[in-house]
Amino acid sequence: MNNLKELKIWNKAIDLAVDVYKATSTFPTDERFGLISQSRRAAVSIPSNIAEGAGRNSVKEFNNFLGIANGSSYELQTQLVIANKLAILESEILDPLIAQIDELQKMTYGFQQMLDKKINKKT
Known about the structure:
By secondary structure, the chain is an all-alpha fold. The chain has a single domain (4-121), classed as de novo design (two linked rop proteins), CATH 1.20.1440.60. Helices cover 78% and strands 0% of the residues. The chain has four helices and no strands. The chain has helices at residues 8-24, 35-54, 59-85, 91-122. The relative contact order is 0.16. InterPro entries: 23S_rRNA-intervening_sequence, 23S_rRNA_IVS_sf. It holds the Pfam family 23S_rRNA_IVP. This is Four helix bundle protein. It comes from Pedobacter terrae.
């Protein structure tokens, strides 16, 4: 088990989720069950999967949950780009969110590579 509060990747994912909630609060109400809900669920899924993986009993399971979190980050990225193309989300708001997502994806990939080394050492 890992201490979540010490995981930089989890803290950054929490910050991203909060920022997505703020950004989607300006979306039209008719998107309540569309892009608002989808974006928020994907954003919350990222730190949630990191947390679930951190609480698992094996490095291999943690690595798997990091992969799920990473998939959610790509899903979120896609939804935010769609919102921008629909003129629901301004580029001034989109660009910093995309930068956060990119950084998180790089961190996740690096963390997975480190965990892969640990997994391969054990076998």
